[in-house]
Amino acid sequence: MERRDIKSFTLTELETAMRELGEKPFRARQLYQWMHEKLAGSFDEMTSLSKELRRKLFEQFLYVSLKPVCEKVSKFDGTRKYLFALEDGHVIESVLMRYSYGNSVCVSSQVGCRMGCTFCASTLDGLERNLRASEMLDQVYRIQAMTGERVSHVVVMGSGEPLDNYDSLLRFIRIISGEGGLRLGQRNITVSTCGVAPAIRRLAEEKLSVTLALSLHAPDDATRKTLMPIAKTYALSDVLEACRFYFEKTGRRVTFEYSLVKGVNDRLSDARALAALLKGQRGHVNLIPVNPVRERDYVQSDRRSVEAFQGCLEKSGVNATIRRELGRDIDGACGQLRRRYIDSVKTPDEGGGEGGRSE
Ligand code: SAH
Are residues 49 and 138 located together in one domain of the fold? Predict the structure, then answer.
């Protein structure tokens, strides 16, 4: 029988499991605190639990604890990118970004991705599997434990489509923001989606106050379809309607992400079309020059076009910021470091040096 994944349990589920083991409810709270507040790396570290109980737990439950296999530190901005190994040998990546308002961790939600966005490295080999809630949580836990610095913000913007792994995402949000855990404010949690309209509507009804980010990347369906296959399933009108519903239900303004690709979506006519499209939406636009991926031939918009694009949006009354690119020198964009790592394991002669720690 597969051992149950204890770090994904809610406190209530843990209380039930401990009762089944003949333990008192306060033990469940102790154990929960060891996992989600003290960030223990194993049952062995839980010294306030008896050896006997720790042995029982070890036998009956899986204890997810990610193993760092590579850490890269940007020379420019202190951004750190981590590769973690999972129990089954897959690797995932997470990023720590330092801002004036606190430390933010970018969390992966799946191993690989099946959404197929043409500019993104995470999707090149398709989806391997969903991450468990515990595997999402432990990305934050290990980074906080290793750096000794509090993580105050989380963006679910790493590899994977979070709304394609809905149940784990919800557990992740509830545990990381709930009592007995890190108690991150839900307002400090951002979930980024390529635009799975029905799942956006479902999320809106969960009585959460997390921020929703929509990867928009184009002002019209035709262009969007060339960049994002999901656009063939859900039209912009449907997705934007879902975003309006999200705002109505949660009061949270939506962030619209827009990666600028030279000659594809970065012209002034695109900016004007985008402004028209977003009229009446409560939210703002984040502009980011596309990060060139080795396997694709997209070219980044130049600084002047990015600024002109922003100026045009602002003139039309749409709030837009140009996002700083962090970690450019450490394969900062989605899925790039994992990709390099997998390549280097496949062909050690060529890709060698990527597997180590570099500063
Ligand atoms: N699947 C989710 C979250 C993961 S991607 C989503 O689509 O939103 C996180 C963000 O990075 C998305 O906005 C995605 O479109 C963007 N992204 C991926 N690869 C990129 C690249 N090479 N350059 C710029 N942005 C990229």
Answer: no
